[in-house]
Every structure is written in C-alpha cells, then in structure tokens.
Design brief:
alpha+beta, single chain, 21 strands, 2 domains, nine-stranded mixed sheet, about 400 residues
C-alpha cells in the first residue's frame, strides 16, 4: 500500500472558496465560532462546529450536533457550494503569513502506514477528543479536518511543488487573520506518479499537528475494514486527509508558560531557589531566548534572563527539550508542578501572542510568574518521534494554521 494516494476531493465550487474557508475547528470556542459564522451561511464552521446552529449550551458531543453537521454538509452539496472533483488528484497548498511561505501537498495518507509507525507521532491523545473526531467522520462519511504532516525535505517533491505553484492558482483566498491560502490541483498522471513514488521512497513522515484526527482516521479505517467482507485495501477509508509540508519550511513558535503562584515562597526566596540551577540576570527589555537552554522570566514587573548550566542538559531527545529543561529544573522542583497536563496552576501561551501576552497575564495579577522559551525545532520533534518517545504537553505551536473547507476526503 502506498504511503499516500490521490483522491477525488470535495471542494468549494469556483468562486465560492472565500464563502467557505474557515479556521480549524479547534482554535476557537463555541461563542467565537458563532461570531465568526455570523452572516456567513456557507462557512465551513457550520460543518466543523455545528453546535453553532443549535441552542446555546448544547453539548458539543451530543448526537444532534453530529447530525446537524451532516445536514449542513448535505445542504452545501445540494446547493452547489461544494462539489466533487472528477478525477483523483493531489493538491499543492501554499500558506503565506507575512514574510513566511510554506508549500506542501494535500494527499490521502495511509492508515496502515500510520498503524505501523511509518507516519510517526509525538503526542498522546485524549479519548474524549479522539472519540469526537470518530463520531464526526462517521456522521459525515468524510474527513474534513486535514492532519498536518511533515516530510524531510526532498528534492523531487520540492521541485515538483515549486513547478506546480508557479502556475495560476485554482484557489486564492486571504482569511480574516491575514493568512493567504492558495491551492493548485495536480491531476496530471505523470506528476501524480512522481509524487506517489517519491513519498513511497521515504522512510517516514511525521505528524506535526492533528494527532486526534489521525488517530480517529485510523480507528474509522480499521473498523470499516473489519466490517467489510470484500475489503480490498484501496478503499478510501484506508486513508486519512492530510497536508504534508517539507520540514525546512515549518515555522514553530515558542510555547510559553505562566504560573499562578510561587508555591508559598516570597519573591526573594524564589529567586534564590532559581539561582541554584540557573544563572540569573536582570534585563531591561523583554527576554526572547535566542538559543536552547536559555529562558526569559517575568516576575513583579521585571524581566530576567535565565541560563541553565550546560552540564545539566542530558543526552536524551525528550529530556533535552527546552520545555523539559524548564520543567525538570524549575517548574517541578521549585514551583511544585509535576504534571503540567492536569495542574491548574499552570497555563500556556502561544508565541503568536508575543512577550507582551506574558506581561499582561502577570501584571493583571492573574499569574505570578511567566517564562519565555526557545521554540522547539522540527529536528528536535523528528528526533523524539524517531526514538518512539512522546513530547511533553504544549511543546509546539505551528503557524500559520491550515484552513478547513478547502478540500475534504469523502469515504466512498
């Protein structure tokens, strides 16, 4: 079975992409989704967040929510807003955010490869979120939320995508957040074969974002395979919707931490404890670390530069991550937070909010201290996945985000 395959995408009709395209379902709450979809009857949020069309307070996991998603999908198809491409294709997909540009390929990725860890993961999933995605896929009989995958930059793939994206785009829309989304259909038989063969030659590809969606795609595929006595292996349920980018075009932002209290210590005692593991220097400006093992700390209207002794950096792909170094040398032993997944004393702030986002949380009195981190690199993420390990929670913040609604995979 090929690592990836082309598929007949379900896409906005010509001229309708701007009406349809929406942010990923999981980057906003229900109230924000309602506001975003206000006055936009064809927004994909009516499919990805269908509770917005039901009474406020509706349980987002209630059966009527998934039924409403299917109703809305069927309506958009019946009204000609969405339509199926006539031929199995790949799609080149370009994201532009400010000066950052990344170009990848939309494809159906193999469930078998995922199950055999050729599509490598680096995070645990939560059952409630995984179950939600399974019910969504089953209700729609389609995968509408693409999994964000990464391949090690490959000359053959990168060259072909550059050639394709030099043509006029089939879709070119700029979302409300200013991110530009461009898409090109790749239905030429030779180009399709080139992409399929190039990916088949790869040892592995990696999940960057979308662990719940990929896990759900695997569950649906396996359950349908077991239920189908005529299973052949080429059915669309054997694949999940994905967008795959080269690793050297990824933009991972810092994922910073804020903590509500100093674990019973006063400021001076806390600083003394921190100085046991780090060199501590006051800074007149906000501290954005420029290298690994360096951290910024904002406490009582003052920024500090923290530097960890190199001897404290272990030779381990997970323990050597900056988020692990901060946890193992400060957040756990000094602030007493051993489980960042469950402890409500800690919160996480994506780098897209800037360092002033940290200052605001502390200056408001909501939080006592903030920490800025050096962003995790793609090389570090792939090293963790290659080692079969799992990254700590809130390790990576990818920007820009994929759009929902540009193309979906129907499970024939």
């Amino acid at each position: 079975m090929s690592l990836i395959k082309p598929f007949t995408g379900l896409r906005p009709a010509a001229g309708r992409a701007d009406d349809v395209v929406a942010p990923p379902y999981d980057v906003m709450n229900a109230t924000e989704a309602r506001e975003m979809a206000e006055g936009r009857p064809w927004s994909f949020l009516h499919i990805s967040r269908p509770e917005i069309d039901l009474p406020e307070g509706t349980n987002p996991y209630a059966p009527e929510v998934y039924a409403k998603a299917r109703e809305n999908l069927d309506r958009m198809i019946a009204e000609g807003v969405l339509g199926r491409d006539p031929k199995e294709s790949y799609y080149a997909y370009r994201l532009t955010m400010g000066g950052h540009v990344q170009t990848g390929v939309v494809a159906a990725a193999s469930v078998e490869a995922y199950d055999n860890n050729r599509v490598k993961k680096h995070e645990f999933t939560r059952p409630v979120k995984e179950d939600d995605r399974v019910r969504q896929i089953e209700a729609l009989n389609a995968q509408t939320g693409p999994v964000f995958l990464v391949y090690r930059a490959d000359t053959v793939v990168d060259t072909l995508l550059a050639e394709v994206s030099a043509r006029p785009a089939d879709v070119d829309v700029t979302a409300r957040d200013g991110v530009r989304h461009e898409m090109w259909m790749i239905d030429n038989d030779d180009e399709v074969a080139t992409l399929t063969q190039a990916f088949d030659a790869m040892q592995a590809i990696y999940v960057a974002d979308g662990h719940h969606r990929s896990a759900a795609g695997s569950r649906v595929g396996n359950s349908r395979r077991e239920a189908n006595p005529d299973h052949q292996g080429n059915e669309s349920y054997n694949y999940f919707l994905s967008v795959i980018f080269p690793h050297d075009q990824m933009q991972i932002l810092d994922y910073n931490r804020v903590v509500k209290d100093l674990n019973g210590m006063d400021k001076e005692t806390f600083l003394q404890r921190v100085a046991e593991n780090f060199s501590v220097e006051k800074s007149d400006v906000a501290v954005k670390p420029a290298a690994t093992a360096g951290f910024g700390m904002y406490l009582d209207s003052q920024w500090y530069k923290l530097t960890l002794d190199q001897e404290k950096i272990p030779d381990d792909p997970v323990a050597s991550l900056d988020i692990s170094l901060l946890a193992d040398n400060l957040i756990d032993p000094i602030l007493g937070i051993s489980d960042q997944r469950t402890d409500n004393r800690i919160d996480f702030v994506g780098g897209i909010r800037g360092l002033n986002g940290l200052e605001k949380r502390v200056d408001s009195g909501e939080m006592a201290v903030a920490f800025s981190l050096y962003a995790t690199t793609m090389e570090a993420l792939m090293a963790v996945a290659d080692a079969g390990e799992v990254m700590p929670p809130k390790s990576t913040w990818f920007e820009p985000k994929l759009a929902d609604g540009l193309v979906s995979l129907v499970l024939d």
